[in-house]
Amino acid sequence: MNTYQEDTYGDRIAGVYDAWYAEYDDATLVTLRELAQGGRALELGIGTGRIALPLQQSGVIVDGIDASAAMIAKLHSKSGGDKISVVLGNFADVAVAGEYTLIYVLFNTFFSLLTQEEQLRCFRNVAQHLGPQGSFVVEAFAPDLSRFSDHQAVRAVRISENEVRLDASQLDPVNQQITSQHVVLTEQGIRLYPVKLRYVWPAELDLMARLAGLQLKYRWGNWRKAAFTADSGKHVSVYEHAE
Ligand SMILES: C[S@@+](CC[C@H](N)C(=O)[O-])C[C@H]1O[C@@H](n2cnc3c(N)ncnc32)[C@H](O)[C@@H]1O
Predict the structure, then answer these.
(1) What is the dihedral of CA 167, 173, 176, 180, to 10 degrees?
(2) I need a surface site. Which of 47, 116, 132, 225 has the fewest CB within 10 A?
(3) How far is the CA of 187 from the centre of ligand 1 (A)?
(4) Where are the chain's structural domains?
(5) Using one digit for the tens of pLDDT, what is the confidence trace for 165-215?
(6) Is the pLDDT of residue 1 over 80?
């Protein structure tokens, strides 16, 4: 039985998320603050506030949307977290009031919408809430299917004396989906952290943006605005209203 839903990833990983993914490039905050132009920001899939909290502390008013009550509870338990207003729900709906000068979705989270229809719906709803000079920012990996062999990949993420962390993934190239488990093996037992994605290449993102009345303004290979090239593992794409 497939019970994976929009809150599954967050609810299962909330307890270890901050320990696993604390790091970020400071340039993330600099670039997001610049794109906010002194206005309000909305993070889709805000999670535990890894970026939203320091961004808010740097002077940008940040709201969020997340499907996982466990992730939101982590955010609200942190110092300053109670100042960030978060709507519980599917970010494809963008069920918030008003307009934002910056709407952003980080760390491949856009790919957690599992169909093209859902992803396009998200773009269309973002366009409804983006101010006239606003920016919609998507940070995501550039798909590299060469890491799969026979539509599968297994990677040892971390091996220490007391713990082994593995990522096991299966690729469905027809639906552009990757189904994975982060597997943690210890002497106490096995923990599973499931994640499902629908990956898209930048060109498909740009087309969805155009269908939603947006257009690509910038595409960088990182938050320091390096050029996006064939060797870029990820991209930071900035969309604006089409002229
Ligand atoms: C990889 S985490 C990223 C969290 C945060 N943006 C960061 O950069 O650390 C993805 C987050 O998106 C949330 N999420 C996944 N699918 C969602 C959906 N359809 N609607 C709302 N939130 C979703 C998860 O609950 C989780 O908190």
Answers:
(1) -20
(2) 132
(3) 30
(4) 8-142+201-241, 145-197
(5) 999 999 999 999 999 999 999 999 999 999 999 999 999 999 999 999 999
(6) no
